[in-house]
Task: structure prediction
Amino acid sequence: MGELLTTLFSFPTVALTVPLGVALLYWLLVVAGAFELPTHGADGHGEGLLEGAEGAATVLSALRLRSAPLTVVLSVVTLMAWLLCAAGAPLLGRALGAPLGWLSGSALLVGSLLAAIPLASLLVRPLSPLFEVHHARRHEDLLGRECVIETGRVDGGFGQARMEDGGAGLLLQVRVDGGRPLERGDRVVLVQWDEPREAFLVERPEQLLRSHATRVGEVTEPSGEPDGEGMEGAPRARKENG
Result:
């Protein structure tokens, strides 16, 4: 156990232990609903880092790593490199007959990162459908459908919900303006597509029922008091005719 801890927290493995810990913390927050689940082309999850980096984008495309969000790719590459480095450090140290120095450690670190990229490609490809946002032919086709909130909160600029479609489900960007905050597990109804925010506006089913009942009541409510003059006018007319 002591040798394992020494390997994990000594160079070169420690250079990957820290970013791996950051990646694990990020995914724990995603599971808890603090962050949105990254999707293909989702802003704010690292996709913009490839803009202008045509060489990096070409390499990722060639390795079919663009099929998943960049945060997923980086997390898997870091994990694979960490495992290779942690396993290779003791073996290389025994082969050299001495603890790893900066030169040998750096070589192992670079080699682990290079070897991790094709391994990550093999692991990421099957995960690609999990992070794909399906768009209907027309967004209006989904209005009125129920879905379940996936993130820890939903507000005017943040939130995702999953709608059952008989398969893995559709992951949708959703927003809510005003009202009681939405939380993970709440059932909501898609009521409108907001083009500027590229997301659906949602409301709770009970809120929609109350709004509908209010509108129905306004339509059926009498507009004013009955006009008595018209009722009295008929007897007066009959009297004059008589």
